[in-house]
Amino acid sequence: MNKTDTALMKLVARVGEIGFSLAVEHLVEVVQLDVGDIDATDVDGSGPELGTFLFRDQPLVLVDLGQAFVLKTADIEAEVPVLVMSGEQGLWGAVVGSVEGVYPESSFTTRDLPISLICTGQKLYSQLDIWRGEPLVCLEPYKIDRYRHAGSL
Amino acid sequence: MFASSPTRSTGTAMLDHSKTVVFRLKGDGFALPVQGIDHIVQTPRLFPLPLLDEKFRGVFIFDENVLPLYNLYRFLGVEADNFSDSSPFTILFMTEFGKIGLPADEVLRIVDNSSGSMEKVDKDYGAIADRCFVFAGTRYPLLSEATLLADLTGSRGNIRI
């Protein structure tokens, strides 16, 4: 698949009861991570960061996407799917509940978040994808990583 | 009973500024100016969104757009036990911030304004209504674009009586 093709695909993942979409151009890889591979040494548990994990021999920050979006999720099981994505300061990983698949962009209808929802203060996402009759939150990995670095998650 | 009824044309028809819709929600009655109503539909499937303010119950899809459902229940002291507890009708109301869905258990009637009168609102509804539409002896807090936007933005404008 060439670069042009991958830019026209979106991945669908779920965290709790919320569906998320991610343009594949922002996705580096989906990995299955064993809980034992997470280094939680410097984690105080106050935020969504779970620790670090090794990806291609490099330690990357691992974020619980459910916690970042304040969602009710089950405890992390033995193995979890992780989206490795581009961020403000390099790659980072986000734990999700499940990955549904990758689909052509043409099957999504992108809409800006209604202004009435923005004016009440939420800033972590600004667009929704209507996919198969359901609104999915468009993941913005750079924005989420920026807020994480700012300590705003 | 109203279902999937557009109350104003998107063409060149004149907007009706002289009528009010009265509807019920959990036993309480409310009023809305007809001029602001876009559609009244059977409530579509509601979806949750993360970080949704308590002022909204969820979102729904209508005409390939995602619209929020305003949480009118919170003014009635009604706690939603579960997300699927929705009213059978949704009134799509136009505001400067786009269309907003308002839940309704029953849409009672469209009333000519000359058949009723306006009065001060009870203090309990001061947050979302600055007047009551009085019809057939019943007082219906009158929702409007101004009061809804004031609630959404957390601002308090001048209260007209």
Shape of chain A: globular
Instruction: Specify the CATH architecture of chain A.
Output: Beta Barrel
Q: In angstroms, what separates the terminal alpha carbons of chain B? A: 31 Å
Distance between the termini of chain A: 35 Å
Number of strands of chain A: 11
- Percentage of residues in helical conformation of chain B: under 10%
What topology emerges from the helices and strands here?
The complex is a heterodimer of chains A (153) and B (161).
Chain A: H1 3-6, E1 9-15, E2 18-23, E3 27-34, E4 49-55, E5 58-64, H2 65-68, E6 79-87, E7 90-95, E8 98-104, E9 108-112, H3 115-118, E10 127-131, E11 134-138, H4 141-149
Parallel strand pairs in A: 2-11, 5-7
Antiparallel strand pairs in A: 1-2, 1-8, 3-6, 4-5, 6-7, 9-10, 10-11
Chain B: E1 5-6, E2 19-25, E3 28-33, E4 37-42, E5 56-62, E6 65-70, E7 89-95, E8 98-104, E9 106-112, E10 117-119, E11 132-135, E12 138-141, H1 145-153
Antiparallel strand pairs in B: 1-4, 2-3, 2-9, 4-7, 5-6, 7-8, 10-11, 11-12
Structural summary, described in words:
The complex is a heterodimer of chains A (153) and B (161). Helix content of chain A is 14%, strand content 47%. By secondary structure, chain A is mainly beta. Chain A has a single domain, classed as CheA-289, Domain 4 (OB fold (Dihydrolipoamide Acetyltransferase, E2P), Beta Barrel). The model of chain A has no long low-confidence stretch (mean pLDDT 90). The model of chain B is unreliable at 1-15 and 157-161 (pLDDT under 50). In chain B, 6% of the residues lie in helices and 41% in strands. Chain B is globular, with a radius of gyration of 15 Å. With 161 residues, chain B is mainly β. Chain B has 1 helix and 12 strands, in the order E-E-E-E-E-E-E-E-E-E-E-E-H. A 4-stranded antiparallel sheet of chain B has the order 1-4-7-8, with helices on one face. Chain B has a 3-stranded antiparallel sheet with strand order 3-2-9, with no helix packed on it. Chain B has a 3-stranded antiparallel sheet with strand order 10-11-12, with no helix packed on it. The longest helix of chain B is centred in the C-terminal third of the chain and has 9 residues, at 145-153.
